[in-house]
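Sequence in, structure out. Go.
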Amino acid sequence: MKMRRLTPFPRACAAAVVVVGVTLTLASAPADAHRRPQSASPQSTSVLDWNEAAGRAALAACEAPLDDPFHESRTYAMSQLAVHDALNAIERRSTPYAADFRAPEGASVDAAVAAAAHDVLVPGFASLGAPFPPSCVAAGVASVEAFYASALAAVPEGRAKADGLAAGRRAAAVILALRRDDRSDLPLVDPAYPQGTTPGAWRFAPGRDFAFATQWSLVTPFALRAAAQFEARPPLALTSRRYAVDLNEVKAYGGDGVTTPTLRSAWQSEVAHFWWESSPLMWNAIGRTVAGRARLDPWEQARLLALLDMALADGYVAAMENKYRDLFWRPVTAIREAASDGNPATTADLTWTPLEVTPPIPDHPSGHSVEGGAAAGVLRAFFGTDRFSFSACSVTVTPGAGTCGSANPILHHFTSFTQAARENAESRIWIGFHFRYATEQGMAEGLKIGRFTVQHELRPRH
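Output:
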């Protein structure tokens, strides 16, 4: 069940899981005539700046781009919800998530955003434990603190700043209290998890002698009513024609090209690594891009990013519920054990090796595809259209070259949110992690999660 919202005011883990065009203007509710928030111009970038700062801190903390997307998604969602509620305390534009209060007239928007984000992000990164080294944890916290200091230095001293800081801190405190007992502190690494032995049953992936996130489905969702609210269809029968087609596809295209020959093109290899980075990191960057291109004001930015991060966080909860219920084997196991699957159209390759090390989680559905679907679902519902031209970069596309922030970053260009989600899903085939059916089912489930989130949370005031 969904956790009860609090009345107005009165995180670690893990082991490495490898896991723009048009301009739109959203209709906004009329502002209260008597309220004039400071620093509330449409040109304010504090919401987007703090969202980007959260990603930098996750990288500094060694949480992103690969090691723990589960807690990463939770921290982002909490931070963005605090920002959303703080802004709506200054000027009510949409339904608060949890912190329902009114800030004094004239409170600084930039100060409120800074305090709300800071007060959630610092404990989020500070709570990271083993195997994250203390140096990583300290770097993550330091990244947030440094940005906080610079952000506050840009806000003039005075009553407006003090009131903004108080609003942000109040919103953050409510969100932190709401999520304190959400079961996100359950162990993520389980080396004793029982492995399957029969054809189709999941077992540890080569090089990964443990199961990961076995209890993440117990984490309280942000928007969903239950982890199993939207479920993917069961995995394919091993003896089916479609299963053989999918196995032979990933066998042909998902190999590492060293131990295992591959038909994967240079472009497909690029796509495989482009989307290798954590979904929360990638899709938040895309969210910032489209928010900027659509010229959303701070309230619209906050609402969009909060909806996006709730859906991404819930996507992991829902995906883990499916995965550990179906416990379907990964391609690396299925290909090596194909002699036992009873399908005459498949043949075993005892040394088949994927492009990257397979994550220690069951195959079905593809969690990465759930995430892409959830993000696309939010963006489509928020803007009322799927057609939106934008570009994206990656921090994992080509190690050492072409990444975001490099002199010549590799950009992928899209004309719709669904197109990006589909490329994201296909990347998991070409990297050797998933069967196509798992990606299709994951994306379909994610789309439902994203659409539901927009329909039921943070509703605009009309």
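Check: The longest strand covers residues 387-392. The chain has 13 helices and four strands.
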